[in-house]
Each structure stands twice: as C-alpha cells, then as structure tokens.
Design goal:
homodimer; alpha+beta; Mth169, Chain: A; three-stranded antiparallel beta sheet; 2 helices; 3 strands
C-alpha cells in the first residue's frame, strides 16, 4: 500500500525558492511562466497488512504531525 | 493554465533524506512504514494565452532541463 503526500506553502506565504527558479527560467528564455511555487513530495510505502482506513489514518497523521509545518504549509494525502 | 511537476529520485538511487525521515517516524511510534522517499513538487502557473499543447511542451522542457537532474531523477508533468 502506497501513500503520496504533497506539501505546499500556504497561498499567502512567500516562496523565495520558487521566485528564484522563476527568475532563472525567465533568464533562460522560457516564456509565459507567470509563477512557480516549490513544494515537497513524499512517497510512503506502507505495510500491506494495514487495511485501507488504517493506512490512510497513519499517512494523514504523519503528514500533519511530521512532514508539514501547519503554520505555513498545507498538505494533501493520496492513498492507493 | 497550471502545470504540476513531480521530481523523484530514480529507484536505484539512495535517498538519505527519506531514510532519515523513516528512522524518525519509527522512533516517534508510527508503525507499518516500510519506506519513505522524498521528492520535489512544483506548481507552475502558465500564461493563459498559451494553448494546451504549447503549455505542456514548455512544462516538459522546463522539467527536463531545469527542474530535474536526469542522471539521478525522474520527472512527471501534469497540465490542467
């Protein structure tokens, strides 16, 4: 069982890393790039013995308590 | 128009950061976590004037040439 966790900065939070990438791709000649924001992505392999509800609960708890900073970041969890 | 780029380490490549997180969640008492791998995630806002094919082409090229290191990383692009 596999969980994917996406962590992104909340919309009001400045993202200097994203801005630096946006500036660089502009210098490199890419056109039409209005904004870039960088986030984090985690692939979590869970014990196949866990049932689906238990796996989602573990992944959600891990995303909220360990993988993201709820003050400045949002997270999204997919379990498959 | 929005593109999402997911960059992950190729499967044979060691991921010390993922291993460190896995070790930590083990110490914190999370059970059933077999493996964690960390990747990067980019949200790219593209000029709405670009048509869909052009937007995908720009995002693919950016993912391949700027956002990922093709020696050790894979990337995936979604345009919506």
């Amino acid at each position: 069982m596999k969980a994917k966790v996406y962590v992104t900065l909340k919309s009001g939070v400045l993202d200097p890393q994203g801005k630096a990438i946006q500036h660089s791709v502009g210098l490199l000649g890419y056109e039409g790039v209005a904004d870039i924001r960088q986030g984090k992505y985690f692939e979590i392999a869970l014990d196949p013995a866990l049932d689906s509800a238990r796996a989602r609960e573990t992944a959600e708890r891990m995303a909220r308590d360990v993988l993201s900073n709820p003050v400045i970041e949002d997270y999204r969890v997919e379990v498959e």
